[in-house]
Protein 1
Amino acid sequence: MSEFKGIDFYEMDGLLTEEERQVRDMVRSWASDKIIPIIEEHAREGTFPRELVREMGELGFFGASMTEYGCAGLSHTASGLIMQELERGDSGVRSFASVQSSLVMYPIFTFGSEAQKKSWLPRLRSGEAIGCFGLTEADHGSDPGGMETRARRVEGGWLLNGSKMWITNGTIADVAVVWAKTEEGIRGFLVEKGTPGYTAPEIRNKFSLRASVTSELVFQDCLIPHENILPETSGIKNALQCLNQARYGIAWGAIGAAMACFETARDYALVRTQFGKPIAGFQLVQEKLTYMVTEITKAQLLALQLGRLKEQGRARADRVSLAKRNNVAIALQTARLARDILGANGITSEYPVGRHMVNLESVHTYEGTYDIHTLIVGASITGIEAFK
Ligand code: TGC
Ligand code: FAD
């Protein structure tokens, strides 16, 4: 396999710092060496490549833009580029890193006590511990504020009852950040593996994100000690703040999946001959390849400017929604067109395109569906909320 060079139609490399380019290139070559050779088999078997976690931790992929607790202290743009390169390998590996960084380390860092931070952040950063984030329930997905999971103050702590659904990393997590209704509003709790009454069965038979663990979390009279409530949480807003971080990473990550699909389709079209010439020489095939490069270039510009805004504290939630919505949609469309260009070969695991395509169906839905992000941007530009 030839070395992946990336797609840089608009010379965006020149807009990155030297450090950002170095980080991108390091993760790019790591993904080529470590993810791509093993990922098809994991996807076929329905297993997560857990063997990569410690190395990802050692290389600084988790909590990469955080500055304390041993984290790498990189720019938000560099942390986005890490997600892009991981997702060129597989959306499931990027999902793991997103959850660990944005949905577990971020809330502990932002809403946690000093003791919680000291206890969990170094271990999560290094990959010694794994985390998950439980917001969605079977009956409350797009509308998480309707959640039914409850925590009630009792002697010695909080009694947690309820369940969460579709939780990435759930079964393998050492700690779950769980959102529950209390008499004081929605609050976040750290539920540790082994807590009596807590189970996390894996959801099997997915056709998408097969190389990622997705689980149900069940809480039956779980006693959560006082020291495990995230003290600075006071409402659904805090859970939504975490989503902004993960959606930002997804906006970058989706570009990686799209680049993998484009490169595969272009290379294939150059060598696949029909009617006596390479199919890349037909106008209709060129139209598809042109769509891909145009949309990837636009997505790169969106993600980069969003990164720069984030570095200035100006990546508003609606701006993040616009990028998540757009970049995942164009990645999915790129994957579908790439599959088309590959003809019958597009439905085999000989090529990564089918895997990316079905993975992106999950990415389209999670972290706010395409339509929910449409409504978030719509509310921002009209001032009228159309969710309810
Ligand atoms: P709403 O009444 O609009 O807002 C309640 C309060 O929250 C504020 N807010 C936000 N704050 C920070 N960031 C955001 N993104 C925020 N969105 C809203 C809002 O200003 C308000 O504040 P205040 O001070 O007035 O109280 O809330 P709502 O309950 O009506 O929700 C609206 C909606 C649809 C935007 C929201 O619930 C939503 O985003 N739904 C989508 C759900 C979602 O994205 N779930 C993701 C679950 S995690 C996941 O999928 C992980 S996949 C991981 C992987 O494997 O990579
Ligand atoms: P629903 O909310 O039931 O939506 C179904 C359809 O209705 C969608 O098309 C939606 O756009 C549409 N719809 C809903 N409301 C409106 C409206 N107001 N206007 C117009 N259309 C609307 N959650 C977590 O908490 N943690 C995780 O780690 C996590 N990981 C996930 C991993 C995977 C592989 C998947 C698939 C999901 C994961 N999720 C996770 C859950 C994910 O966030 C939800 O699936 C998502 O928020 C959508 O919720 P839902 O599936 O209940 O769909």
Note: The mean pLDDT is 97.
Protein 2
Amino acid sequence: MKINIGIIGCGYVGLVTAACFAERGYKVLGVDSDAGKIKTLLSGHLPIYEPGLAELVKRNQSRKRLVFSTDIGQAVRFADVIFIAVGTPLGDNGGADLSQVKRVAREVAKNLSSRYKIIAEKSTVPVGTAEQLKTTIRKYAPARAEFDVISNPEFLQEGRAIKTTLYPDRIVVGLETKRAEGVMRKLYASFKAPILITDLESAELIKHAANSFLAMKISYINAIAQICEKSGADVRKVAYGIGLDKRIGREFLRAGIGYGGFCLPKDVSAFVHIAEKLGCKFDLLKAVQSINRDQRQHFIRKIEKACGSVKHKKIAVLGLSFKPDTDDIRESPAFDIIRGLIRKGAIVAAYDPKAINNMKKILPAGKVHYVGNSYQAASGADCLAIITEWDEFKNLDLKRIKRIMKTPLVVDGRNMFDPQMMEKQGFNYLGIGFK
Ligand code: UGA
């Protein structure tokens, strides 16, 4: 049997998943209710920036393996496995808002037939959602419909989305029948990653537990960074020293201005909510959140202290996206930091290689002076604040930067540069987690 794939939701996760399955040789139909997005995709353009994705989508569109539509019914009729990859943003109560997932489940259900289908949760959802989806789908599907609901969380990282999808550390599939297991094992056979088959609830929980653990590592090292600053230790050395212990591991121990993005902040918050609903306290994760919030304020305080006051001072902000190699500004530390600086009377000139247009939507031009390159931002500045560690910034002409700044002060929220080198170049250089 040849497996055809339907992906409902063409955001970061859906689009990357669609393109990667097509690249593996499957026929994929991607659906999104946003007609504008589908029009953009059909005209050969991408609604987002992700390295390598435009080429992958284009290649598979021309091979006729990847097509797009706004019609969920078409995807259900076409596909053997239907992935639900719509957004699960934070609701008002701090838990995940599942309205899009539920709407899609009803639509999928109405289009089911006696041909067996797998409906797979790709979006990050609270534990217990697959069970709810089964009930909803049974309610709206024709009596003869044959289907399984499974959980298949994604672990892709923005900026490295293709690599982390095509070559994941593991593939997690929560399911209940041998039939579904057979299809999913076949679907992922060419991915050469360990496949972990679990029950539905464990698969759902693995996703929230993994993202929260990553957030915890970041907040842990950021808390250590504050201790390092007070004690004279260097957090980069401490992170290296603890990371060499295999039980701890070296990844996700980069101190800085904390985690952002659409996933970690929302998933930590949702996980606290899930735990509390189940009657379990999760104070550990609340501390993770509070350290993360404070890290942004700590950065502002550092700039303020170094400048005396930021009132009427020009602060050059380099980087707006929540991490490099993406235009995604959702929950980016840049937003809170720029807003905080403006409130204190600073004049902010900001540059980012890809994310300016997105940031303009939430911080309009006028409040922030968006400029076309790092040098325009730095010109006449009292302080250069580094928010995102784009490669482009690593290769800056530092002599030129020093010449054009009013005061050669660099406050680096990502510890991009070697402090000794920066001081040699004549900068007053402040990073996170060392003196
Ligand atoms: C995260 C997870 O890493 C993925 O495994 C998961 O699939 C994804 O969420 C998701 O749920 O969709 P992503 O949000 O793309 O991926 O970004 P990360 O690479 O995890 O970075 C998150 C934030 O943490 C960024 O703001 C980054 O700058 C920050 N970070 C990361 C640090 O401050 N220090 C570190 O050592 C690592």
Note: The pocket of uridine-5'-diphosphate-glucuronic acid is lined by residues 124, 154-158, 211, 214, 218, 252-254, 256, 258-261, 263-264, 322-323 (CB under 6 Å).
